[in-house]
Specification:
single chain, about 190 residues, alpha+beta, archaeoglobus fulgidus dsm 4304 fold, two-stranded antiparallel sheet, 6 helices, 9 strands, globular
Length: about 190
């Protein structure tokens, strides 16, 4: 692993179900050594399946695209049930994905809600391909395209002010500040 690799931390903005059809997706380009180097953004549709393509475009359009070594996402679902396809992101970009959660995903609660949106079997498949949830410090993570050891090393090097990786924390603060008008605590 490079001494000062860059990661792209991603989180979505707030939306009130039933009142908004889109929300913002924010990416923070973050270099080991605790340096924020850039911000990218896109819009995604609530409960759609466009987050994968938007993330791929975010990675492609940034001037740091050739230097981003890892993607760290705040969950695998954005804008409700807009599930990211980490396998496709890795295949298109060559960049491994690390998915972080404050609480261990509980599929028994998630699946009944997921059945209410179109293509629920595809969405479940996308969640399953991200792999098993692992515990790390005060949160859980999944990974795709790298080893568990590499994922833990990236997480160790990006945790600064909270229990979540700094690029995800910053992406959350920016996204909530834009959509709500004030930043909120990361979920």
């Amino acid at each position: 692993m490079k001494k000062f690799p860059r990661v792209l931390g991603i989180d979505d903005g707030f939306f009130r179900p039933g009142t908004r059809t889109k929300t913002i997706l924010i990416g923070v380009i973050y270099r080991f050594g605790h340096i924020v180097e850039g911000i990218v953004s896109s819009e995604i549709r609530v409960d759609a399946l466009d987050s994968t393509e938007k993330i791929i475009r975010m990675l492609a359009k940034t001037k740091f695209s050739s230097q981003v070594s890892f993607l760290i996402m705040s969950g695998i679902n954005f804008a409700g049930f807009n599930i990211a396809d980490v396998k496709k992101i890795f295949e298109k970009t060559g960049i491994p994905a690390i998915i972080v959660f404050r609480k261990k995903p509980r599929m028994e609660k998630f699946v009944p809600a997921l059945k209410k949106v179109p293509n629920f079997k595809k969405r479940i498949s996308l969640i399953e391909q991200a792999g098993e949830a692992h515990s790390f410090k005060n949160f859980f993570f999944q990974f795709y395209g790298c080893t568990e050891q590499d994922a833990k090393e990236v997480l160790r090097k990006t945790i600064l002010h909270s229990s979540l990786p700094e690029p995800v924390r910053l992406a959350h603060l920016i996204a909530s500040g834009v959509t709500i008008g004030e930043s909120t605590r990361p979920k």
